Amino acid sequence: MAHIVIVEDEPDLAAGLRDNLEFEKHTVVHAATGQEGVEAVSKQETDLVLLDIMLPDIDGFEVCRRLRASGYTMPIIILSAKGQELDKVRGLELGADDYVTKPFGLRELLARINAALRRADRPETETLRSQFTIGERRIDLVRQKVETPDGELPLGYYESEILRILHEHVGEAVPRNELLTRIWGTAVFPADRTVDNHIVSLRRKIEPNPKEPRFILTAHAVGYKLVLS
Ligand code: CA
Predict the structure, then answer these.
(1) Residue 188 is part of which domain span?
(2) Residue 28 CA, ligand 1 centroid: distance in Å
(3) Per mean pLDDT, which range of 51-60, 124-133, 137-146 is the poorest?
(4) Among residues of the chain, what percentage have pLDDT more than 70?
(5) Structure letter (DSSP) for residue 173
(6) 18, 60, 170, 217: which has the highest count of C-beta atoms within 10 A?
């Protein structure tokens, strides 16, 4: 059972989500504007946020940015009506963990929610390898932050996990499939581009020049590789 905040201005969609989540024994708070969403999270302990992008006041990107800037690290899943890659990457850049494109299947959303909650619940036994440096950036996987020369950037949950696995295998190519099954599990089948979108977002946070990556390299036809030299 989890406390979930739904930030969504379409009443029917919000009501349908609420019914289904309550049926799954979660408690739900519904916020119809971005501002209400930020307030709802600050008022009560929240385990997960479902976040629409197009809202009547501040948009979902800004809600995400404010929550991460305030230090909240709970999973945020974006419910996006926009299918464009650019928007997805933007959400990830601002610290969202995952996105589901409307119209989405309820079972897929519930599987993603459960997967995100399961992972967020994992005890932090791996703190030993959770802080390291990439170039001039200091990575902190527990706080889900990148310290750059220009300030801190938030890391989403999946970005942190991708970095954790690449760092475990530093210098070696890690197949895309291994990242998918280790991070998303076998119950959820994210689209092929999922890992790639997270990599685009990670590169923008870590690489001095994201267009010519020096640290997170593409291993052609295989996956990705982290190099630290
Ligand atoms: Ca909307």
Answers:
(1) 124-226
(2) 18
(3) 124-133
(4) 91
(5) E
(6) 60
Q: What would the mean pLDDT of 190-217 be, rounded to a whole number?
A: 90
Q: What CATH number should be reported for the domain holding residue 213?
A: 1.10.10.10
Q: Is 8:15 a contact under the CB 8 Å cutoff?
A: no
Angle in degrees, CA 137, 140, 144, rounded to 5: 110
> How many CA atoms lie less than 13 Å away from 52 in the CB half-sphere?
25
Structure tokens at 172: 């070696």
Distance 93 CA to ligand 1 centre (A): 20
| Residues bordering ligand 1, an ion, CB closer than 5 Å | 9, 52, 54
Q: Do residues 139 and 75 share a domain?
A: no
- C-alpha to C-alpha distance for 166 and 198, rounded to whole angstroms: 13
Q: Is the dihedral of CA 5, 104, 13, 109 positive or negative?
A: negative
If asked whether residues 83 and 175 sit together in one domain, one would say no
This prediction's pTM: 0.66
112 plus 138 within the same structural domain: no
The number of domains in the chain is: 2
Residue 223 Cα to ligand 1 middle (Å)? 35
Q: Which of 97, 117, 137 is the last residue of a domain?
A: 117
Give 73's pLDDT tier (boundaries 50, 70, 90).
Answer: confident
Distance separating alpha carbons of residues 182 and 188, to the nearest angstrom:
11
d(CA 190, CA 203): 20
